[in-house]
Amino acid sequence: MLKKILMLILCIAVVFSTVACGNNGGQSDGGNEENPNRQITLRIESAAPLRYNYPALLNSEEEGSMLYNQALFSKKVVEGFKALYPNINLQFIEHGWGDALYQKQQLEIQAWVDGLGMSLDIMIGEPYMGFFAENGVFAELDASKFTHVIEGAYSDMKIDGKLYGVPMCTGIMGLQYNTQILAEVGIPEDEWVPQTWAELLENSKKVSEYAEKNGKEYSGIMMNNVAGMSCAFRALPFMRQAGGDIFDENGGLALNSEANKEAFTYLRSLAKYAYKEGLTTGSEDYLQSYFVTGHAAYMVEGQWSMATAPDHIKAANLPKKEANSTVNGNVYCGNVLFGITEGSKNKAAAEAFLEYLTSAEVQNWFYELDGRLPINKNVLSSAEIKEVYPNINPYIDALVAGGFEGGLSGFTTNATDIWNKWGSFFKDVLTTEKDISVLMTETHNYILDKMD
């Protein structure tokens, strides 16, 4: 349905511009510049840590808790922006995340195409935002106002050299490791950080064998088998390291490629040394809790849990497939993207908000209060940021070094069915001996059918 809607947008762009002008009482989109004192309310789709109910949370939550800090961040953003632009009010609207958000956005786009106007000035999202940008949903941004934003994090929002959105924050994958377990097992300190797939497998094997022999309750590695996109984000770096991905460079589905088969075969071998309860849980939070409480020596995960991790939990770059590999298979995860809707009547004000949101001042607040990676280059390269959460510094170094771009691919039709299928496929890869080629072909064909 969305494809039809978006194609219709492209076909009736000229007609729709007339409708939009009529809905705006004849006022041009440049009304903000013509009358800078005009009172404006920006309607912004938001997600944590931008909280619409931040005043209530500041009163109800314990000071220093996650929700309290997110509320405090929201308050700082609102008050700071108001000081710069007294005539612009910010209204945050939470439509959920994932499929729930996507379904709501389809309704918003449908109303816009039907000539009923666009109720949102700014949309938020992750996997589908590039698709929206490609199909005319977002207005072009002045790229010169966002040169301070790290490029790889918005690559999905850059179409034919034009910029259509920027992130508020981002995340990437890293290898976390438990120094206490590795020391107890007797692995030399200079081998704690594996540089290759083979070294990670060997260390995980040593830990699991030691644990079994000595009655320990830990295993070599904690692996994410949470159904859907969650496990896909953790599998994708291995797929990319092997030379694969979900889609090929031409946009065609490539799940059943030989490169991906190599990655899945390796992940199955790694799963033999995984913490068993971790392979059966349906919660990312449980996985992170299992890991920081000492149930595995290694875990491939984003940086968010490192802000509060104990000192014996460290982080490093992901291992490479082979020692001489030049491929950086990392993936942007938790890459919260914003785009200004083409139907917004307040584009200049909306762009000013995005410029403020990505500023050094706001990005410093964000990192200190929430722990997700900032996207402002000046903040990332500052000496001060290294003092905030030392355990996260390896992620910052990897983000600044770059060499990778883009996040997880988004499916625009039957997404729920497709990710459910992926979940069952990946579970079979990690926990059964079923033929991987057969599993890949079956899943590939299923997804192709659902994409039609």
Descriptive keywords:
452 residues, D-Maltodextrin-Binding Protein, domain 2, 11 strands, three-stranded antiparallel β-sheet, four-stranded mixed β-sheet, 46% helix, alpha+beta, 2 domains, 19 helices, disordered N terminus
Structure description:
- The protein is an alpha+beta fold and 452 residues long.
- The protein has 2 domains: 229 residues, Periplasmic binding protein-like II (D-Maltodextrin-Binding Protein, domain 2, 3-Layer(aba) Sandwich); 200 residues, 3-Layer(aba) Sandwich (D-Maltodextrin-Binding Protein, domain 2).
- The strands form 4 sheets. The chain has a 4-stranded mixed sheet.
- A hairpin with a 2-residue loop joins β4 and β5.
- α1 runs parallel beside α6 and α4 crosses α5.
- The N terminus is likely disordered.
Short description:
This protein is of the alpha+beta class. The protein contains 19 helices and 11 strands.
